[in-house]
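Course assignment 3, question 2. Fill in each field.
Student: A.L.
Task: Predict the tertiary structure for the chain below.
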Amino acid sequence: MAKQPVSVPRRGRPPLAEAESHAAILDAVYELLKKQSVRDLTMEAVARRAKVGKPTLYKWWPTKAELVLAMFRERILSAHPPPPVPGETAEEAISHAACLLIRAFKGPLGKVSAELIAEGQSEPEIIRKWFDEHIRHRRARNAADIERGKTIGELLAQTDPELVIDSIFGAIYYRLLFRSAPLTEQFGKDLVAQVFRGLKTRSDRGEHQLQINSPRSSMK
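Answer field:
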């Protein structure tokens, strides 16, 4: 007669309790950062609010930066998935992405993003991880949209996707960080339209060009 396998009791906390502690910790970070900056956040305050011991925090996240990035990924980014690619022009796709980002920056995403960038000046590893987890794949989607515009003849063949992305999204981050002017969706639309105006092929420009009086046309 075959022997029945002997069950060995698990040591430590059950998975459900670990999951609850994990969620409580990230919730605590999220709530605390509504009232204070990443720089002022302490592991002690997180442990106290989540009702866990500090060893539990350090077991999963060796540093405060890693804890904040985990919260950013699981509590903030999950609410802002990458935008779907519209089945229209590259300009429309990039304009859509820019407006969604600006809209998201009005909430916790904007506050925590700005603070992570600030913290990253003294801790470059924060910037690297934040870029890899949040920005890199979005840039790849934007670049694919621009390459598609080149393929269908919407944009000039020599258009550099990386420079276009930097020109548009760099300006958005500039306003987020320096607050030099209001960061509005209308700004995003106008910005994209201005950048793409100089990238369109002559045939596409004839179909979509805004009716403006440029210095060059007035000289003819």
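Instructor remarks: The chain has eleven helices and no strands. The CA atoms of residues 95 and 189 lie 6 Å apart.
Grade: pending
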